[in-house]
Specification:
Number of helices: 2
Largest sheet: 8 strands, antiparallel
Strand content: 35-45%
Oligomer: single chain
Order of helices and strands: EEEEEEEEEEEEEEHHEEEEEE
Shape: globular
Number of strands: 20
């Protein structure tokens, strides 16, 4: 396939993507979907893959954790109301391969709460009702939003949607389809892991860019690029992301992903 051969590589010590300018899913009761690609290194306890939190760090937040319990990914929330969405949300990641993770609440009020590992769905609850904490104004990838609980490994295509992506769409993304090619609307934020500069642009069109601290570049999992053609070459370029940010990089085309 023609692949965007980039992801963000984090050292588990002091590297992350961060913004103090916005929160995600603040006060949400659904629907929403969270997706990301991950490849773990060390199984150090309590690593944040992503998080939105209040400015004060009082604990009101939601996040996707790795390693809080053994080598499991979990959805974590505090300051929420209703049922705890963490219960039943764990998924074991016992190897160093790339894995696709997704969580989905399919409607407001009492609704389905599902988890997906590599495109395969498991129902957490057929009727759960919870509302995430409000006043979330700080967001991060690969660490907690105040600079702690660092992730050791690689992340790519981290996305948040204010809709319930259908099963077939989540499965297609896990098999390598690009999110922008299979789902057009309701994007709250989408960070590819493509940029080698100091800003990680938001591909959702909402200009929710993140500041890069130390994270380097690594190989991306298999997947098609967000362009409608196969470039057929390997080379450097500078491109404009949605929202006006620019980023340098390179594309390696292996052909045949149409």
């Amino acid at each position: 396939c023609g692949c965007v051969d980039m992801a963000r590589d984090f050292n588990g010590t002091d590297q992350w993507l961060n913004s103090t300018a916005f929160g995600l899913l603040s006060g949400s009761n659904g629907p929403f979907t969270i997706i990301l690609w991950m490849q773990r290194d060390a199984g150090v306890p309590n690593q944040y893959l992503m998080q939105s939190i209040v400015t004060s760090g009082s604990g009101n937040q939601w996040g996707v954790l790795f390693g809080y319990v053994n080598n499991n990914v979990e959805f974590f929330a505090s300051g929420h109301t209703g049922t705890d969405p963490r219960i039943g949300s764990s998924m074991a990641i016992a190897d160093g391969a790339w894995h696709h993770i997704a969580y989905r609440k399919d409607a407001s009020g009492a609704s389905n709460w599902d988890k997906f590992l590599d495109g395969t769905k498991t129902s957490i609850s057929a009727s759960i009702n919870f509302t995430l904490a409000g006043s979330l104004v700080r967001s991060s990838i690969a660490a907690a939003g105040l600079g702690a609980a660092w992730f050791d490994g690689r992340l790519a295509q981290v996305g948040v949607f204010t809709s319930a992506l259908p099963d077939a769409v989540i499965t297609a993304i896990a098999k390598g389809a690009h999110p922008l090619r299979v789902w057009a609307g309701s994007r709250a934020g989408l960070w590819e892991g493509l940029t080698s500069g100091s800003t990680e642009p938001d591909w959702s069109g909402n200009v929710l860019n993140l500041t890069v601290t130390g994270a380097t570049m690594a190989n991306h999992p298999p997947g098609a690029p967000p362009f409608g053609f196969d470039l057929g070459w390997v080379g450097a370029f500078t491109a404009a992301a949605p929202g006006g940010a620019t980023w340098p990089g390179w594309i390696q085309s292996r052909g045949g992903w149409f």
